Every structure is written in structure tokens, then in C-alpha cells.
# Entry
Amino acid sequence: MQMTGIKALVEIVIQLGMIWLTFTAIQGFRLERFFRQPPKTLPLAIVLLSTAIGYLCASFFIGFINAVSQLPGLLR
# Structure
């Protein structure tokens, strides 16, 4: 039971970390300079885009970790 809680906590930290990482990466592109008048909803679009990309990256990373952790069962 405690191992499940630890795994859930690690997954939440990975999810939030990847979302933060993609948010800072997207901000590095400075999308405002591509518009003469940036739309008022551009910050919201950046947040939503970073959430989507961060979730996908975190899901891949968590799936990869789960697959690697099950490899010892192949050798039994």
C-alpha cells in the first residue's frame, strides 16, 4: 500500500516537472514577437500547449520507466 502511494507521488512530480520544463521551453521561443499585436489569449494558449506537451512527455517517460522495471521478469 505504501509503495503505491510513493509511486503516485513520483508520477505527480514527474508530470509537474515535465509541464514546467515545457512551459519554460515554450517561453524561450518568445512567441509574442511573431505578432504585431499579440492576442490577449496568447499566455493561456502557451499554458495549455505546455500542459499538453508536458503530459505527453511525462506519460512517455513514466511508461518507459514501467517497462524497464518489468524487464527483470523476462530473465526469470
Remarks:
- The CA atoms of residues 22 and 50 lie 5 Å apart.
